[in-house]
Amino acid sequence: MSEFHIIGGHKIGGTITAQGNKNEALPVLCAALMNPAGVTIRNVPQIEDIKNLLKIVEAVGAEITTLADGHSYSIVTKDIKMSELPSELVAGLRGSITLLGPILARAKKVFLPRPGGDKIGRRRVDTHLLALSALGAKVEVFNDGYMLEAAKLKGTAILLDEASVTGTENAIMAAACAEGVTLIENAASEPHVQGLCRFLIAQGVTIEGVGSNMLKIHGVGGFENLKAADHTIGPDYLEIGSFIAMSAMTGGDLVVQDVNPIDLRMIKFVFERVGINWRYHEREGKGIAPSGQIVDLVMKSPYALKIQTDVHGEIPKIDDAPWPMFPADLISIILTVATQCSGTVLIHEKLFESRLYFTDKLMGMGAQIVLCDPHRAVIIGPSKLYGSRMTSPDIRAGMALVIAALAAEGESVIQNIVQVDRGYENIDARLRSLGAKIERI
Protein backbone atom coordinates (compact mmCIF):
# COMPACT_ATOMS: atom_id res chain seq x y z
CA MET A 1 0.00 0.00 0.00
CA SER A 2 1.30 3.45 -0.92
CA GLU A 3 1.27 6.49 1.33
CA PHE A 4 1.94 10.21 0.96
CA HIS A 5 4.73 11.90 2.89
CA ILE A 6 4.06 15.63 3.00
CA ILE A 7 6.16 18.43 4.48
CA GLY A 8 3.84 21.36 5.11
CA GLY A 9 4.37 25.10 5.18
CA HIS A 10 5.12 25.64 1.48
CA LYS A 11 3.01 27.90 -0.72
CA ILE A 12 0.94 26.12 -3.36
CA GLY A 13 0.84 28.26 -6.48
CA GLY A 14 1.44 28.39 -10.20
CA THR A 15 -0.67 27.27 -13.16
CA ILE A 16 -2.62 24.05 -13.52
CA THR A 17 -5.39 22.72 -15.77
CA ALA A 18 -8.48 21.16 -14.25
CA GLN A 19 -9.03 17.48 -15.03
CA GLY A 20 -12.19 16.20 -16.64
CA ASN A 21 -15.19 15.78 -14.36
CA LYS A 22 -15.01 12.31 -12.77
CA ASN A 23 -18.72 12.27 -12.02
CA GLU A 24 -19.56 13.03 -15.65
CA ALA A 25 -17.05 10.62 -17.15
CA LEU A 26 -18.39 7.62 -15.21
CA PRO A 27 -22.02 7.69 -16.49
CA VAL A 28 -20.92 8.79 -19.97
CA LEU A 29 -18.65 5.74 -20.25
CA CYS A 30 -21.56 3.57 -19.07
CA ALA A 31 -23.86 5.17 -21.66
CA ALA A 32 -21.35 4.31 -24.39
CA LEU A 33 -22.47 0.68 -24.02
CA MET A 34 -25.86 1.55 -25.53
CA ASN A 35 -24.50 2.72 -28.88
CA PRO A 36 -23.48 0.11 -31.50
CA ALA A 37 -22.48 2.91 -33.90
CA GLY A 38 -19.61 3.96 -31.62
CA VAL A 39 -18.71 7.11 -29.69
CA THR A 40 -15.63 9.17 -28.91
CA ILE A 41 -15.22 10.51 -25.38
CA ARG A 42 -12.55 13.14 -24.66
CA ASN A 43 -10.95 14.71 -21.57
CA VAL A 44 -11.45 11.60 -19.43
CA PRO A 45 -9.45 11.80 -16.16
CA GLN A 46 -6.93 8.99 -15.62
CA ILE A 47 -8.02 8.01 -12.11
CA GLU A 48 -8.57 4.67 -10.41
CA ASP A 49 -12.37 4.76 -10.62
CA ILE A 50 -12.21 5.35 -14.38
CA LYS A 51 -9.64 2.57 -14.88
CA ASN A 52 -11.86 0.13 -12.97
CA LEU A 53 -14.98 1.14 -14.91
CA LEU A 54 -13.17 0.72 -18.24
CA LYS A 55 -12.34 -2.86 -17.21
CA ILE A 56 -16.03 -3.51 -16.54
CA VAL A 57 -17.16 -1.85 -19.78
CA GLU A 58 -14.63 -3.91 -21.76
CA ALA A 59 -15.68 -7.13 -20.03
CA VAL A 60 -19.30 -6.42 -20.93
CA GLY A 61 -18.46 -6.17 -24.63
CA ALA A 62 -17.07 -2.75 -25.53
CA GLU A 63 -14.13 -2.41 -27.89
CA ILE A 64 -12.05 0.43 -26.44
CA THR A 65 -9.31 2.29 -28.29
CA THR A 66 -7.19 4.80 -26.38
CA LEU A 67 -6.47 7.85 -28.54
CA ALA A 68 -3.13 9.62 -28.82
CA ASP A 69 -3.66 12.17 -26.07
CA GLY A 70 -4.17 9.44 -23.46
CA HIS A 71 -7.35 11.08 -22.16
CA SER A 72 -9.72 10.17 -25.00
CA TYR A 73 -11.36 6.91 -26.03
CA SER A 74 -13.13 5.52 -29.05
CA ILE A 75 -15.72 2.99 -27.85
CA VAL A 76 -17.74 0.62 -30.03
CA THR A 77 -20.10 -1.94 -28.51
CA LYS A 78 -21.31 -4.27 -31.24
CA ASP A 79 -22.88 -6.65 -28.75
CA ILE A 80 -23.24 -7.23 -25.00
CA LYS A 81 -21.22 -10.28 -23.93
CA MET A 82 -22.60 -10.55 -20.42
CA SER A 83 -25.50 -9.08 -18.51
CA GLU A 84 -24.22 -10.26 -15.12
CA LEU A 85 -21.49 -7.83 -14.12
CA PRO A 86 -18.20 -9.02 -12.56
CA SER A 87 -18.60 -8.66 -8.80
CA GLU A 88 -14.86 -8.34 -8.15
CA LEU A 89 -14.78 -5.11 -10.19
CA VAL A 90 -18.15 -3.73 -9.14
CA ALA A 91 -17.38 -4.17 -5.43
CA GLY A 92 -14.99 -1.22 -5.28
CA LEU A 93 -16.82 1.22 -7.53
CA ARG A 94 -20.00 3.01 -6.55
CA GLY A 95 -20.26 4.54 -10.03
CA SER A 96 -20.87 1.07 -11.47
CA ILE A 97 -24.52 1.46 -10.47
CA THR A 98 -25.05 3.62 -13.56
CA LEU A 99 -24.53 0.48 -15.66
CA LEU A 100 -28.07 -0.60 -14.75
CA GLY A 101 -29.88 1.66 -17.22
CA PRO A 102 -27.58 1.19 -20.23
CA ILE A 103 -27.27 -2.59 -20.02
CA LEU A 104 -30.99 -2.99 -19.36
CA ALA A 105 -31.69 -0.89 -22.46
CA ARG A 106 -29.22 -2.88 -24.55
CA ALA A 107 -29.47 -6.47 -23.30
CA LYS A 108 -33.04 -6.43 -21.87
CA LYS A 109 -31.73 -7.76 -18.56
CA VAL A 110 -28.93 -7.06 -16.11
CA PHE A 111 -27.68 -8.40 -12.79
CA LEU A 112 -25.73 -5.84 -10.79
CA PRO A 113 -23.83 -7.03 -7.69
CA ARG A 114 -24.11 -4.62 -4.77
CA PRO A 115 -21.67 -1.79 -5.65
CA GLY A 116 -19.00 -0.47 -3.31
CA GLY A 117 -17.42 2.99 -3.08
CA ASP A 118 -16.81 5.54 -0.34
CA LYS A 119 -17.80 4.58 3.22
CA ILE A 120 -19.58 7.82 4.01
CA GLY A 121 -22.92 6.40 5.06
CA ARG A 122 -25.84 4.53 3.55
CA ARG A 123 -26.12 4.80 -0.23
CA ARG A 124 -29.72 4.06 -1.29
CA VAL A 125 -30.49 2.18 -4.49
CA ASP A 126 -34.28 2.48 -4.12
CA THR A 127 -34.55 5.51 -6.42
CA HIS A 128 -32.79 3.64 -9.24
CA LEU A 129 -35.00 0.58 -8.94
CA LEU A 130 -38.23 2.57 -8.68
CA ALA A 131 -37.40 4.67 -11.76
CA LEU A 132 -36.40 1.71 -13.92
CA SER A 133 -39.45 -0.21 -12.72
CA ALA A 134 -41.65 2.69 -13.86
CA LEU A 135 -40.08 2.39 -17.33
CA GLY A 136 -41.11 -1.26 -17.53
CA ALA A 137 -38.40 -3.23 -15.75
CA LYS A 138 -39.20 -6.23 -13.55
CA VAL A 139 -37.00 -5.88 -10.46
CA GLU A 140 -35.82 -8.62 -8.11
CA VAL A 141 -33.71 -7.77 -5.06
CA PHE A 142 -31.26 -10.35 -3.70
CA ASN A 143 -28.86 -10.15 -0.79
CA ASP A 144 -25.91 -9.90 -3.16
CA GLY A 145 -27.37 -7.74 -5.93
CA TYR A 146 -30.23 -6.72 -8.21
CA MET A 147 -31.79 -8.44 -11.23
CA LEU A 148 -33.70 -6.32 -13.73
CA GLU A 149 -35.47 -7.50 -16.89
CA ALA A 150 -37.49 -5.59 -19.47
CA ALA A 151 -38.55 -6.89 -22.88
CA LYS A 152 -39.41 -3.32 -23.83
CA LEU A 153 -38.89 0.04 -22.13
CA LYS A 154 -41.74 2.52 -22.45
CA GLY A 155 -41.75 6.23 -21.69
CA THR A 156 -43.74 7.37 -18.68
CA ALA A 157 -44.00 10.05 -16.01
CA ILE A 158 -41.58 9.53 -13.12
CA LEU A 159 -41.43 11.47 -9.87
CA LEU A 160 -38.14 10.59 -8.17
CA ASP A 161 -38.45 10.07 -4.42
CA GLU A 162 -35.17 11.98 -3.99
CA ALA A 163 -33.01 14.08 -6.32
CA SER A 164 -30.45 11.30 -6.67
CA VAL A 165 -27.71 12.08 -9.18
CA THR A 166 -27.01 8.51 -10.24
CA GLY A 167 -30.70 7.62 -9.98
CA THR A 168 -31.48 10.46 -12.39
CA GLU A 169 -28.70 9.32 -14.71
CA ASN A 170 -29.97 5.73 -14.83
CA ALA A 171 -33.49 6.95 -15.59
CA ILE A 172 -32.23 9.29 -18.33
CA MET A 173 -30.20 6.58 -20.07
CA ALA A 174 -32.99 4.01 -19.98
CA ALA A 175 -35.54 6.60 -21.15
CA ALA A 176 -33.28 7.59 -24.05
CA CYS A 177 -33.73 4.14 -25.60
CA ALA A 178 -37.38 3.71 -24.60
CA GLU A 179 -40.43 4.11 -26.80
CA GLY A 180 -42.27 7.38 -26.27
CA VAL A 181 -41.73 10.33 -23.96
CA THR A 182 -40.51 10.19 -20.38
CA LEU A 183 -41.00 13.05 -17.93
CA ILE A 184 -38.65 12.96 -14.93
CA GLU A 185 -39.60 15.27 -12.05
CA ASN A 186 -37.39 16.04 -9.05
CA ALA A 187 -34.42 15.23 -11.27
CA ALA A 188 -30.88 16.04 -10.18
CA SER A 189 -29.38 18.86 -12.25
CA GLU A 190 -25.65 18.83 -11.40
CA PRO A 191 -23.16 19.74 -14.17
CA HIS A 192 -22.33 16.06 -14.67
CA VAL A 193 -26.01 15.22 -15.20
CA GLN A 194 -26.15 18.03 -17.76
CA GLY A 195 -23.03 16.62 -19.43
CA LEU A 196 -24.65 13.19 -19.75
CA CYS A 197 -27.71 14.81 -21.32
CA ARG A 198 -25.54 16.61 -23.88
CA PHE A 199 -23.82 13.32 -24.71
CA LEU A 200 -27.18 11.67 -25.41
CA ILE A 201 -28.41 14.68 -27.37
CA ALA A 202 -25.34 14.33 -29.61
CA GLN A 203 -26.51 10.75 -30.32
CA GLY A 204 -29.91 11.94 -31.54
CA VAL A 205 -31.95 11.91 -28.31
CA THR A 206 -34.16 14.96 -27.74
CA ILE A 207 -33.99 16.11 -24.11
CA GLU A 208 -35.82 19.20 -22.86
CA GLY A 209 -35.13 21.00 -19.59
CA VAL A 210 -31.40 20.25 -19.28
CA GLY A 211 -30.11 21.98 -16.15
CA SER A 212 -33.53 21.96 -14.44
CA ASN A 213 -35.25 19.50 -12.11
CA MET A 214 -37.78 18.52 -14.79
CA LEU A 215 -36.50 16.60 -17.81
CA LYS A 216 -38.53 15.57 -20.83
CA ILE A 217 -36.84 12.81 -22.79
CA HIS A 218 -38.06 11.74 -26.21
CA GLY A 219 -36.89 8.14 -26.51
CA VAL A 220 -35.46 6.92 -29.80
CA GLY A 221 -37.33 3.60 -29.54
CA GLY A 222 -34.28 1.36 -29.25
CA PHE A 223 -30.48 1.45 -28.99
CA GLU A 224 -30.12 0.69 -32.71
CA ASN A 225 -31.46 4.19 -33.46
CA LEU A 226 -28.60 5.97 -31.69
CA LYS A 227 -26.04 7.63 -33.94
CA ALA A 228 -22.28 8.02 -33.57
CA ALA A 229 -21.16 10.98 -31.44
CA ASP A 230 -18.12 12.87 -30.15
CA HIS A 231 -18.27 14.28 -26.61
CA THR A 232 -15.85 16.20 -24.37
CA ILE A 233 -16.08 15.84 -20.58
CA GLY A 234 -16.36 19.19 -18.78
CA PRO A 235 -13.94 20.48 -16.12
CA ASP A 236 -14.15 18.96 -12.63
CA TYR A 237 -15.46 21.71 -10.36
CA LEU A 238 -14.78 19.54 -7.29
CA GLU A 239 -11.09 19.31 -8.14
CA ILE A 240 -11.06 23.05 -8.84
CA GLY A 241 -12.51 23.66 -5.37
CA SER A 242 -9.75 21.50 -3.88
CA PHE A 243 -7.01 23.53 -5.58
CA ILE A 244 -8.63 26.78 -4.46
CA ALA A 245 -8.61 25.57 -0.87
CA MET A 246 -4.97 24.47 -0.77
CA SER A 247 -3.70 27.63 -2.46
CA ALA A 248 -5.61 29.90 -0.08
CA MET A 249 -4.60 27.94 3.03
CA THR A 250 -0.91 28.11 2.10
CA GLY A 251 -0.92 31.68 0.74
CA GLY A 252 -0.06 30.89 -2.87
CA ASP A 253 -0.99 32.62 -6.15
CA LEU A 254 -2.83 30.22 -8.42
CA VAL A 255 -4.20 30.05 -11.97
CA VAL A 256 -6.56 27.19 -12.82
CA GLN A 257 -7.02 26.92 -16.57
CA ASP A 258 -10.17 25.84 -18.39
CA VAL A 259 -12.87 26.35 -15.75
CA ASN A 260 -16.58 27.00 -16.26
CA PRO A 261 -17.75 29.88 -14.02
CA ILE A 262 -21.35 28.69 -14.22
CA ASP A 263 -20.34 25.52 -12.36
CA LEU A 264 -18.64 27.57 -9.62
CA ARG A 265 -21.33 30.12 -8.72
CA MET A 266 -22.39 28.69 -5.34
CA ILE A 267 -18.87 27.47 -4.61
CA LYS A 268 -17.60 31.03 -5.10
CA PHE A 269 -20.33 32.39 -2.84
CA VAL A 270 -19.40 29.98 -0.02
CA PHE A 271 -15.63 30.49 -0.36
CA GLU A 272 -16.18 34.25 -0.20
CA ARG A 273 -17.92 33.72 3.15
CA VAL A 274 -14.63 32.39 4.55
CA GLY A 275 -12.51 35.17 3.03
CA ILE A 276 -11.34 33.62 -0.26
CA ASN A 277 -11.85 35.48 -3.53
CA TRP A 278 -10.84 35.01 -7.14
CA ARG A 279 -11.50 36.50 -10.56
CA TYR A 280 -11.92 35.07 -14.05
CA HIS A 281 -9.76 35.83 -17.07
CA GLU A 282 -10.78 35.10 -20.64
CA ARG A 283 -8.06 33.67 -22.85
CA GLU A 284 -7.99 34.50 -26.53
CA GLY A 285 -8.86 31.55 -28.71
CA LYS A 286 -10.86 29.62 -26.14
CA GLY A 287 -14.25 28.46 -27.36
CA ILE A 288 -17.65 28.46 -25.74
CA ALA A 289 -18.62 25.38 -23.73
CA PRO A 290 -22.16 24.04 -24.06
CA SER A 291 -22.94 25.41 -20.59
CA GLY A 292 -20.91 28.61 -20.66
CA GLN A 293 -17.60 30.36 -21.34
CA ILE A 294 -14.42 28.42 -20.50
CA VAL A 295 -11.98 30.79 -18.78
CA ASP A 296 -9.05 30.86 -16.35
CA LEU A 297 -9.56 31.23 -12.61
CA VAL A 298 -7.01 33.59 -11.04
CA MET A 299 -6.22 33.78 -7.29
CA LYS A 300 -3.88 36.37 -5.74
CA SER A 301 -2.66 36.40 -2.14
CA PRO A 302 -3.08 37.62 0.53
CA TYR A 303 -6.40 36.06 1.49
CA ALA A 304 -8.56 37.39 4.33
CA LEU A 305 -9.38 33.89 5.73
CA LYS A 306 -12.07 35.37 7.95
CA ILE A 307 -15.52 33.89 8.57
CA GLN A 308 -18.23 36.34 7.50
CA THR A 309 -20.91 36.37 10.19
CA ASP A 310 -24.62 36.47 9.52
CA VAL A 311 -26.68 39.60 10.21
CA HIS A 312 -26.38 40.80 13.84
CA GLY A 313 -23.08 38.95 14.20
CA GLU A 314 -24.66 35.52 14.43
CA ILE A 315 -22.61 32.39 13.76
CA PRO A 316 -23.05 31.39 10.10
CA LYS A 317 -23.88 27.96 8.77
CA ILE A 318 -22.40 26.30 5.67
CA ASP A 319 -24.43 23.36 4.45
CA ASP A 320 -24.81 21.20 1.37
CA ALA A 321 -27.88 20.59 -0.77
CA PRO A 322 -28.78 19.39 -4.28
CA TRP A 323 -27.56 21.53 -7.19
CA PRO A 324 -27.33 24.47 -7.62
CA MET A 325 -26.51 24.68 -3.90
CA PHE A 326 -23.11 23.90 -2.34
CA PRO A 327 -22.02 20.35 -3.31
CA ALA A 328 -21.74 17.68 -0.62
CA ASP A 329 -18.40 16.52 -2.03
CA LEU A 330 -16.80 19.85 -1.04
CA ILE A 331 -18.01 19.82 2.58
CA SER A 332 -14.84 18.06 3.78
CA ILE A 333 -12.76 20.65 1.90
CA ILE A 334 -14.54 23.77 3.17
CA LEU A 335 -14.48 22.39 6.71
CA THR A 336 -10.71 22.05 6.49
CA VAL A 337 -10.40 25.59 5.14
CA ALA A 338 -12.46 26.88 8.07
CA THR A 339 -9.85 25.60 10.54
CA GLN A 340 -7.51 28.30 9.20
CA CYS A 341 -10.04 31.14 9.21
CA SER A 342 -10.65 33.52 12.08
CA GLY A 343 -14.15 33.11 13.50
CA THR A 344 -16.66 30.35 14.14
CA VAL A 345 -18.83 28.47 11.65
CA LEU A 346 -21.27 25.56 11.77
CA ILE A 347 -20.77 22.96 9.04
CA HIS A 348 -23.93 20.96 8.34
CA GLU A 349 -23.54 17.85 6.16
CA LYS A 350 -27.10 16.79 5.37
CA LEU A 351 -26.62 13.90 2.98
CA PHE A 352 -24.21 11.34 4.45
CA GLU A 353 -24.09 10.38 8.10
CA SER A 354 -20.43 9.24 8.15
CA ARG A 355 -18.72 11.95 6.11
CA LEU A 356 -17.72 14.14 9.08
CA TYR A 357 -16.04 11.37 11.05
CA PHE A 358 -12.72 12.29 9.45
CA THR A 359 -12.65 15.41 11.67
CA ASP A 360 -10.96 13.38 14.42
CA LYS A 361 -7.85 13.39 12.24
CA LEU A 362 -7.96 17.19 11.91
CA MET A 363 -8.39 17.45 15.69
CA GLY A 364 -5.31 15.28 16.06
CA MET A 365 -3.44 17.89 13.99
CA GLY A 366 -4.55 20.66 16.36
CA ALA A 367 -7.83 21.88 14.81
CA GLN A 368 -10.50 23.21 17.19
CA ILE A 369 -13.59 21.28 16.15
CA VAL A 370 -16.69 20.24 18.07
CA LEU A 371 -18.38 17.31 16.35
CA CYS A 372 -21.97 17.82 17.49
CA ASP A 373 -23.41 14.72 15.82
CA PRO A 374 -22.83 12.74 12.59
CA HIS A 375 -24.09 15.65 10.50
CA ARG A 376 -22.87 18.82 12.24
CA ALA A 377 -19.52 20.23 13.34
CA VAL A 378 -18.57 23.60 14.81
CA ILE A 379 -15.21 24.95 13.65
CA ILE A 380 -13.38 27.58 15.72
CA GLY A 381 -10.40 29.12 13.96
CA PRO A 382 -7.74 29.76 13.21
CA SER A 383 -5.90 26.74 14.59
CA LYS A 384 -2.23 25.92 14.25
CA LEU A 385 -1.96 22.58 12.46
CA TYR A 386 0.88 20.12 13.03
CA GLY A 387 1.98 17.16 10.93
CA SER A 388 0.46 13.81 11.80
CA ARG A 389 0.08 10.20 10.66
CA MET A 390 -3.39 9.57 9.21
CA THR A 391 -5.42 7.21 7.04
CA SER A 392 -7.64 8.41 4.20
CA PRO A 393 -11.24 7.18 4.68
CA ASP A 394 -12.72 8.30 1.32
CA ILE A 395 -11.91 10.39 -1.76
CA ARG A 396 -12.90 13.85 -0.52
CA ALA A 397 -11.83 13.42 3.10
CA GLY A 398 -8.53 12.07 1.77
CA MET A 399 -7.99 15.22 -0.25
CA ALA A 400 -9.02 17.33 2.76
CA LEU A 401 -6.27 15.63 4.78
CA VAL A 402 -3.76 16.29 1.99
CA ILE A 403 -4.74 19.98 2.05
CA ALA A 404 -4.43 20.11 5.83
CA ALA A 405 -1.00 18.49 5.63
CA LEU A 406 0.15 21.04 3.05
CA ALA A 407 -0.77 23.85 5.47
CA ALA A 408 0.56 22.14 8.61
CA GLU A 409 3.90 22.57 10.35
CA GLY A 410 6.14 19.53 10.01
CA GLU A 411 5.70 16.23 8.20
CA SER A 412 2.49 14.27 7.71
CA VAL A 413 2.01 10.70 6.50
CA ILE A 414 -1.29 9.79 4.84
CA GLN A 415 -2.04 6.12 4.29
CA ASN A 416 -4.65 4.39 2.09
CA ILE A 417 -4.07 6.99 -0.61
CA VAL A 418 -5.71 4.76 -3.20
CA GLN A 419 -8.84 6.58 -2.02
CA VAL A 420 -7.36 9.89 -3.21
CA ASP A 421 -6.20 8.29 -6.47
CA ARG A 422 -9.80 7.24 -7.13
CA GLY A 423 -10.74 10.89 -7.71
CA TYR A 424 -7.60 12.91 -8.47
CA GLU A 425 -5.31 12.18 -11.40
CA ASN A 426 -1.58 11.92 -10.69
CA ILE A 427 -2.14 14.28 -7.77
CA ASP A 428 1.31 14.06 -6.15
CA ALA A 429 3.16 15.03 -9.36
CA ARG A 430 0.67 17.81 -10.09
CA LEU A 431 1.06 19.19 -6.56
CA ARG A 432 4.85 19.09 -6.84
CA SER A 433 4.52 21.24 -9.97
CA LEU A 434 2.74 23.79 -7.74
CA GLY A 435 5.45 23.82 -5.08
CA ALA A 436 4.26 21.09 -2.70
CA LYS A 437 6.73 18.89 -0.85
CA ILE A 438 4.96 15.58 -1.33
CA GLU A 439 6.29 12.11 -2.08
CA ARG A 440 4.54 8.83 -2.82
CA ILE A 441 6.21 6.04 -0.85
From TrEMBL:
UniProt keyword list: Cell cycle, Cell division, Cell shape, Cell wall biogenesis/degradation, Cytoplasm, Peptidoglycan synthesis, Transferase
Enzyme active site: 118 (proton donor)
Annotated InterPro entries: Enolpyruvate_Tfrase_dom, Enolpyruvate_Tfrase_sf, MurA_subfamily, RNA3'P_cycl/enolpyr_Trfase_a/b, UDP_GlcNAc_COvinyl_MurA
UniProt KW Cell cycle keyword: yes
EC number in record: 2.5.1.7
Swiss-Prot/TrEMBL catalytic activity: phosphoenolpyruvate + UDP-N-acetyl-alpha-D-glucosamine = UDP-N-acetyl-3-O-(1-carboxyvinyl)-alpha-D-glucosamine + phosphate
Protein's pathway: Cell wall biogenesis; peptidoglycan biosynthesis
The keyword Cell membrane belongs to this UniProt entry's keyword annotation: no
Family: Belongs to the EPSP synthase family. MurA subfamily.
UniProt protein name: UDP-N-acetylglucosamine 1-carboxyvinyltransferase
